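Issue: ligand-bound run for alpha-D-ribofuranose - logging full I/O for the record.

Environment: standard queue, default settings, no custom constraints.

Inputs:
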Amino acid sequence: MKKLSIIDIANHLNVSKTTISFILNGRAEEKRIGKELVERVQKFVEEVGYKPNSLAKSLRTGKSNIIGLMVEDISNPFFSAIARLIEDRAYKNGYKIIYCSTDNDTLKTRELINMFRDRHVDGYIIAPPQGIEDDINSLLKDGMPVVLFDRHLPNVNADFVEIDNLFSTYNATKHLIQQGYKNIAFITFASGQTQMQARLQGYHEALNESGYKPVVQEIIFNQNEDLIIAPITNFLKKNKKLDAVFFGTNHVGTCGLKVINGLGIKVPSDLAVVSFDDYDVFKLFSPPVTAIAQPIEAIADSVITVLLNKLNTSSQHISSQSIILKTDFNIRESSKTATS
Ligand code: RIB
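Outputs:
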């Protein structure tokens, strides 16, 4: 039996090819096509077993209606929450998402970008590791829509969405100082990424204003949690004079709390605690942990909105923009002094 095309379906149902295409590409809501017509088309398509030939369509139209999403680690709750929100918004606008994890590995990221090129994705959303500048500049030179998020690459003129990392840690460190803490450590991953450097700088600037000595422990990023817990354990055992500790990400924070429990350290009387990235476990810890909450919904919404604007605007000469979002500082018992 001859394979049905979109034109056959349109003629049979006496509906325009464009309308059929919008319905089959999940864009009925966006194009305000009535529910009754959508159901009539979907019922017929199911009855005749129509399967759109996506490769032929993408070669013909130059569009695959696929977006490539590259995060550091899709199993990390921060990135998976954002990925899910991006996927929902993209689908409502007729796009499917292929996502993958870079593990902050430049070579792996290069391979994944090439895979996305082979799949003819229409646009890229990337939380980039360092060292991938040339590959992203090449995508931009080829006119590919690219949006970076969570960190940016100083030598790449791409749109990006970040949070105000420096102010967030500056403000949280000032809070610890105002609570009377003076020997405040910052434990974070060793990283030249812009968001991690900004957090470290915010900590230093707050301490410098009060003349307090910074005490920093930078840990090599590792999937194996034991290799994060061990250096934090040694650090806290060695630095008995600390009265507060600031963890630079959710991952370091959860490992840090395991160490604090393991060493029988009382919070906040022995050691006050603040962590970047608010997280259910921080609310459940005893006492609940003061944390900087990133605006997950706003990050996802900003990223997909910028990309869709680029996808729906033929001109590629839109000047790149940076969107810097604010965080919430959720003060809880772990950073309060007995008197406060
Ligand atoms: O693991 C997620 C953390 O690292 C978040 O702070 C996010 O900003 C990323 O950089």
